[in-house]
Amino acid sequence: MAGVKIEQLSKYYTIHNEQIKALAEIDLTIPDGSFVTLVGKSGCGKTTLLRLLCGLEQPSRGQITFLDQQQQVVQGKGRVSIVFQEPRLMPWLTVEQNMALPLFKEKDRRRVNQTVTHFLALLGLKKFRDAYPAQISGGMAQRVALGRTLCYDPDVILMDEPLGALDAFTRKNLQAELVDIFQTQKKTIVFVTHDVDEAVFLGQRVVILEGGKILEDVAVALSYPRNPLQQEFFQIREKILTVVMGEKPTKIGGYSQ
Ligand SMILES: Nc1ncnc2c1ncn2[C@@H]1O[C@H](COP(=O)(O)OP(=O)(O)OP(=O)(O)O)[C@@H](O)[C@H]1O
Predict the structure, then answer these.
(1) Is the ipTM beyond the 0.90 threshold?
(2) pLDDT for 78-103, tens place per residue?
(3) CATH code at 7?
């Protein structure tokens, strides 16, 4: 298990001699076993932050430290895994083989089989064990991608709009499954979404980014599973929308936000 401490993190890109500040001096602590969602307008730096967290990019400035449960620094990089918007499965491998990919170095094949079987059951994929990616639906494929990540058993799971390409019903089901997985697996999750409802449904905190900076860090003190029709849910959602849209607070449900 691990949490993440981000200090004064900046990432600059240069395009045609013009410097773009994708992230500017971000400070953020994500405790071990917590679920943080990141929202913000397109281009605000959400994906850049995930790419830095999983080491696909190097910071221009600042640092990222992984901390264990005792708040001690984890040497090197923590075990981090990322789930993208599209499942990125190997088309020539079955569902089972795709999920087992991160365990290719494991010599004990019985253990591999047990682990994969466990997550196939957890994600409702047992019947599709021997299917190829072309033979399953988009929602199932995204479950396989999540299963592959869970087989790797990372400390920190990063998710970059993993449900963005799915229809509304599949998306709702997978949101509920994610909450279950978070509660049972106790992973640290950082989840990027454009959907404020999804952010409030899932996250214990919703971090709002704008122009590479943190605009606000909103606590979602609601127990799981959450009901989007509940007044408190609605209030938090409206507060976030107000911050993202840069509008003055509106009167909602009879009282000001
Ligand atoms: N490899 C790159 N080279 C140059 N500029 C980049 C690169 N990656 C990102 N950027 C720039 O950094 C800024 C932040 O991009 P990023 O992809 O992190 O935004 P985002 O919030 O994830 O956007 P979206 O919601 O549209 O996916 C943007 O201005 C983008 O153009």
Answers:
(1) yes
(2) 689 999 988 999 999 999 999 999 99
(3) 3.40.50.300
